[in-house]
Amino acid sequence: TGYELHEAITILGENTKPFIKIEKGHGNTPDCEYDGAIKGNICGTYFHGIFHNYEFRRNFTDYLRVQKGLEPLGLSGDDFKESKRVNYNKLGDLFMENVDMSFFDKLLEDLD
Fold first, then answer.
1. What integer is the mean pLDDT of 77-102?
2. Which residues pair with 38 in a beta bridge?
3. Strand partners of residue 87
4. DSSP assignment of 53-65, as one string?
5. Pairwise CA distance, residues 107 & 112, whole Å
6. What's 72's DSSP letter?
7. What is the pTM of this model?
8. Once rounded to an integer, what is the mean pLDDT over residues 3-28?
9. Apex CA 2: angle with CA 38 and CA 7, to 5°?
10. Nearest to 49 by CA among 92, 82, 80
11. d(CA 48, CA 80)
12. pLDDT value for 3
């Protein structure tokens, strides 16, 4: 779980490392080139939607897998956006096949 901070400054404590090096923009403070913090198995970042990035998500997952003694999965070359589109279409098809749409039509008619 997590939450989003919009205005904050991160001060790294004892045995805490920066999470990510920033190539462009501001990090933990205006003059810092790093974002977030990591200590043990806990990390925090100001990046919104960081897990939407396939390569980051897979590399992060592989890091966790290695920590647990599992083999990394590596990058599959799959196009995440295309995979997401295909799966949403499958979900839509399942919905249409299994839901009585005339029921919803009647509900909408009754609202008029």
1. 87
2. 17, 43
3. none
4. -HHHHHHHHHHHH
5. 9
6. P
7. 0.50
8. 74
9. 80
10. 80
11. 18
12. 58
